[in-house]
Amino acid sequence: MLWRSATAALASFFVLANSSLTVAQKASDESGSPSATTTISGEQLPPPPPKFGGVIKEDALKSTPWWPPRVVPPKEAPNILLIMTDDAGFGVPSTFGGVIPTPTMDQIAESGLRYNRIMSTALCSPTRAALITGRNHHSVGFGVIAEQATGFPGYDSIIGTDNATIGRILRDNGYATSWFGKNHNTPTYQASQAGPFTQWPTGMGFDYFYGFVGGDANQWGPNLFRNTTQIYPWIGHEGSLKMDRSDPNAEIWPVTGEEPTWNLITAMADDAIDWMTRIHQTDPNQPIFLHYVPGASHAPHHPKKEWVDKIHAMHLFDDGYEKLRERIFANQKKLGIIPKDLELTPWPKDILKPWDELTEKEKKLFIRQVEVFAAYVAYNDHEIGRVIQAFKDLGKLDNTVVIYINGDNGTSAEGGPEGTFNEVAFFNDVTPSVDVQMKYYEAWGTEFAYNHMSAGWSWAFDTPFDWFKQNASRLGGVNQNMVVSWPKGIKDTGSLREQFMHVIDVTPTLLEITGIPAPEVVDGIKQKPIEGTSFAYTFDAKNAKAPSRHKTQYFEMMGQWALYHDGWLLSTRVNRAPWQAFEAANADPLNNQVFQLYNLAENFNQSEDIAAKHPDKVKQMRQMFLEEAKKYQVLPLNASVAARVTAQRPSLTAGRNELVYTRPMTGTPQGDAPFLLNTSYTITADITVPEGGAEGMIATSGGRFAGWGFYLLKGKPVFNWNLLNLDWVRWEGTEALKPGRHTVEFDFKYDGLGLGTIKFNNFTGVGKGGTGTLKVDGKVVAEKRMKKTIPIILQWDESFDIGSDTITGVDDNDYTPPFPLTAKFNKLTIKIDRPQLSPQDIQKLEAGMKKAALGVQ
């Protein structure tokens, strides 16, 4: 009886299902059918749910089903590939006169348009925030990079919910959206697996993310994520190089073995191609928006060896950086992308040594540095070409808008005049000598170097302009270039456009060409207006010489500023090179400046300052800048650089002096890791050693280029401080731990006051030494003084790990990651004892900070 009832019920279900299916089939092209689609007005996102259009009776057989239509973009909306490279100035690509071959960019230019006046903000995360929101960087909380965030609206590293990104707008209008590569727009204190993930790409409207979080990454071994989940280890990481440092007196340390087969530059192209293919095969009609932002060519410069060999064989740089600058300048005139009568600004001999004054060793090192950089650029352009080819292979290229922006700012000079094998050293105010750097000659570009080139090359790569990334008042810091192709929409191919534009103009351009309006309300929150101006009008040949529609634009970065208005540019004279980040800051960056004035319509590259001839114009534009600064959250102006890295900001560990961990875990980023710089601390591990002994990582933070590790090596406890890959201070027990339960402790007593900046008013509270004591079960087994400590920051792309070590280790001579702990992990306790300042110390500190205008509350 029961079986018969079940059978009857099942039969009734099939009748009902078939009835519904019949209705659906009849209505497949009508509203309410499963295949129904609709476009939306777009003023409100997500759109309000549609009213049910079917019929509901008591009996389902007499009712009519109705499906809400699927949202799709307007008819013929194009696919979008939005590309932006990293730390690349105007003279880098061959497309704009550079000597580095970028055939992919060349091809896009030939099939589309070149643009020579697209502006950035002079720094990475600010430009990226402006690009994806269509609003000025201070308007969306990114006046500086996330690691320098301060507690003011223009500088808090939070893209507010009233600033929906282009990803969110397109996604809610039916696009498939993705983000590949660098994400430098997540606050440091929201980058851990504790979330929240609202400020990650997937929380900002990009349904798929594959890349890294932060300013840069080791391309041979990044802290890599798919959506919000760490990918480790990487598939296909075969091959292993070894660096032999056994002879400390060797001029060059040899590197042997096979290069890894895996590199992020290729891996992200592979993943992007896989994603777009998956979307196409699932729904060939769905337009895609692919935001492609590789880490190249930001330091560390990590190309594959085959590309280094190709560039080396071309001998592009043998005659030095001044000659390189002259060749690029001549190429640019031949291409017609700069005026024929333009003159170069003079070489800055006061800060960059002329090539003919270098030693032969310096020349050899510097050529190696730039060849690796050039290889990185060429390699990256090649992989971008593979992504574009995938659009063609899928039959999508004809209706795909490709926007390829060269650089999020000018070329970086953060390696300083001599370059560096370890960029982390630069951010700790340490400059390795040429002799030390030569030891890494063979390692340059491999996983054993976090390398950056001499600023002399950077100056040359910003030709026809001068200065660098960070310098917002000079075109070398902000004047990028761009190519755009769209076979279906751009017919005036191979042409040049010279209208003034800014990266905030990209989002409104994409909205215009897709026919999608900027929303007024998103998630119930009224949106700020888009601040950029569409440049879609330039796609039409009749507007090739039309006046720019972007009339006014401010620039500001760490106290250096400028204002563009209708062809005129007011600039503050550069008062700090990027490598002078630790100097005392300008106390009044709004007014304590030397002002320069340029007519860009007559002087393309700021080579002729006419401020003395037009004092009234200078006065007028100074007032205009102040008005713009008030409008876009630029105030308060702050000229400090390194001091903002050390300033207090939110963290999941902030205010906690004791942290307890009872299970192994990996992947906690530095922004939420225990901060053990400039303080006393005690790390206590409760472990149980099995029969036969144990080894492995107890806890570590940072990696090969700066960090600490607490581990068992052949059973002996070790605490090891890696001081910027220049020195290692080790405490090691004399005996292996016997089987059983043990307490292993490392106690460090810091000498300094623990607060302040590197240099001002002779107040030095950071980077001081201290005494470390290693104990086993309460007994001292090693004690040693450290003369100095790391002052500012550990390696930012390496995490805080417990129970194993991800990516790179702190000492290649001791172990190879992941080096799992084979003892039973019971508990880890970290106690932090920050120095207590006297009232006199605090008064001195506050006075010094106020005088240096550090902006720390």
TrEMBL record:
The entry's keywords: Calcium, Hydrolase, Metal-binding, Signal
A Pfam entry, by short name: Sulfatase
Stretch forming the signal peptide: 1-17
Domain Sulfatase N-terminal: 78-516
Biased composition (Polar residues): 25-42
Annotated segments matching region Disordered: 25-53
Family recorded in the similarity comment: Belongs to the sulfatase family.
Name of the protein in question: Sulfatase-like hydrolase/transferase
Annotated organism of origin: Microbulbifer hydrolyticus
